[in-house]
Amino acid sequence: MTTTLASLKEWVDSVAKLTEPDKVHWCDGSTAENERLVSKMLASGELLKLNHETYPDCYLHRSDPNDVARVEHLTFVCTANPDDAGPNNHWMEPAAAHEKIDALFAGAMKGRTLYVIPYCMGPIDSPFARLGVEITDSPYVVVNMRLMTRMGKDALARIEREGTFVKGLHSTGDLDPDKRFIMHFPEELSIKSIGSGYGGNALLGKKCHALRIASWQARQEGWLAEHMLIVGVENPQGETHYLACAFPSACGKTNLAMLIPPASQPGWKIWTLGDDIAWLHLDDDGQLRAINPEAGYFGVVPGTNAKTNKNAFDMIHHDTIYTNVGTTAENEPWWEDKKVGEPATDWKGNPYKAGNGAAAHPNSRFTVSAKQNPSYSTLAEAPDGVPLSAIVFGGRRRELAPLVYEARDWRHGVLMGAGVASETTAAATGEVGVVRRDPMAMKPFCGYNFADYWSHWLSFADRSKKLPRVFHVNWFRQDQDGRFLWPGFGENLRVLRWIIDRCDGRVGARETPIGFLPNASDIDTRDLELSENALESLLSVDIAQWQKEMAAVGEYLEGYGDRLPAELKDEQRRVLEALQS
Ligand code: OXD
Ligand code: MN
What is the 3-state secondary structure (H, E, C) of 146-205? Predict the structure, then answer.
């Protein structure tokens, strides 16, 4: 296989010249090709076969212990003008960046095969889908991309028809963290990544293309590329509302997207459209619609069990690639909070010893096709996506943020999103559990200056009078003894129900300076064992704490200088004044 598209052929030839692979292979995405790659990796030890009776067609990949998460300090947005990348990104001048990284790519594929992966982000026949080609020397990346994107022949045919695509060049290099860079060139629609095989750094369709590059394209073309799950909530009458929810990495997006309604909520159903990324477009009637550009899930494994997320738990029992979990004596995958089996080997392949660290890395992952999800929505394949009733922001906050509250209007909603803060998790290298600002959960992923991004968000109010309502949720509030006040998981449906009731104008709310909060009686707590006063605490607004928070949001926004939209600053002032009066 090769291509009729001259620009693609020339690029592949020039990369081969630079990287000097032994072979070049054009991926067609077929089952036979996948089987060949899996056999090759089983032979090399890159993949280990798991118990094929209990986990058919499941494999384990153990990464280099230095290469287990995204590396934000080594991730760059390279634009001609540094202000276009903004204070939210690390910046490098494009020519200097190319020179630096090309020196690392020189000869990097010697003795290896260069794989060309044509892929499509979004349903293959969607006008909102976008195309890309990833070149990599990692067969692990190829088999993951096959699950995460629409990859192969059909994508190549569309690339050849349309002629434009995002160029992604990846090599695992020698995995030396000192020679690791993830670089984005939005003005050239290209990505170069070297020195890591970890999903977020190496599966270039995901964070690099579908968020960083796509957010840049989206601004130019009038849409939004967001770090959001998309979920359909069907009521007992058979009506479905669609919500898009932005939470930082490892804050439960996959669990919410696949929620199983508890027995106390008969007749409710949940349909998953996406668990990580949403591309949002206004249609001709001013309705905001969402597609999921991905075709699979790259989810956090620890904590997944038959109680927390039965759909995910069932789904990852076959045809799944595990990365960095432990194994049992029966050669089944094992992770913390799996609730079945005992670990025999840890994620590094050493015999497991209690007290010697976790068996599975806290950021260990499963890669699986979305079609294996029992709650997969058929509308996930709809070319025009689904109409959104609400946008929901959230973070992991021990205190301050109530269980749920609603913005007064779109502009307030943009401020609410811009003010999102969350405790850091193991999805990125660095300290875990410290609160940091993560506007719209896009801090690691917005491919341009946040100030311009907020202006772009605000501009939607001029284009439609029918925008979704905006909410904020926090499942992670704790009491003074560090116990979670809200049970989370399936019970979160109770909160989604309030959100939907608000969208449909069925329920009132209490107006506070930070937005509309539920009246306690409007959250269904039937059969829920909440500790005493828990709901009251969950729905309380500590004015003194919030004054500090809003002042801190104001200071944070000031950091964006002249490009910060005045409208956003005015909104922050309005909320602060309301808190002070
Ligand atoms: C992810 C992340 O892998 O956000 O989705 O880090
Ligand atoms: Mn994510």
Answer: HHHCEECHHHHHHHHHHCCCEEEEEECCCCCHHHCEEEEEHHHCEEEEECCCCHHHHCCH
Residues 240 and 171 in one domain: no
Choose the residue to mutate in 277, 298, 396 for probing ligand 1, maximizing ligand atoms within 8 Å of C-beta.
298
The domain total for the chain is: 2
In a domain, 369, yes or no: no
Predicted pLDDT at 532: 80
Mean pLDDT of all residues in 554-575: 98
| Whether the predicted pLDDT of 30 surpasses 80 | yes
Tell me the CA–centroid distance for residue 540 and ligand 1, in Å: 31
CATH of the domain at 491: 3.90.228.20
Residue 534 CA to ligand 1 center (angstroms) comes to 31
Which atom of ligand 1 lies at the shortest distance from residue 248's CA? Answer: 4
Q: Where does the pLDDT of residue 122 fall: very low under 50, low under 70, confident under 90, or very high at 90 and above?
A: very high
Tell whether 187 and 255 lie within a shared domain: no
Quote the tokens at residue 128: 């909102």
pLDDT at res. 46: 98
CB atoms within 10 A of CB 44: 9
My answer on whether 539 and 411 are in the same domain is yes
The pTM (predicted TM-score) of the whole model is 0.97
Closest ligand, as measured to the CA of 300: 1
196-215 per-position pLDDT tens digit = 999 999 999 999 999 999 99
pLDDT attached to residue 437:
95
Full residue range of the structural domain in which residue 210 is found: 6-45+72-221
Q: 148 CB contacts (<8 Å, ≥6 apart)?
A: 203, 205, 206, 294, 295, 296, 298, 367
Q: Is 320 within a domain? A: no
556 in the same domain as 495: yes
Q: Are residues 505 and 392 in the same domain?
A: yes
Q: How far is the CA of 275 from the centre of ligand 1 (A)?
A: 10
Give the residue numbers marked as catalytic. Answer: 251
Rounded to the nearest angstrom, the distance between the alpha carbon of 276 and the centre of ligand 2 is 5
Question: Do 199 and 272 share a structural domain?
Answer: no
DSSP states of 312-357: HHHHTTSS-EEES-EE-TTS-EE-TT--SS--SB-TTSSBP-TTSS
Tokens of 136: 């990599």
Q: Is 276 near ligand 1, meaning CB less than 6 Å away? A: yes
Among 148, 208, 276, say which to mutate for ligand 1: greatest number of ligand atoms within 8 Å of CB: 276
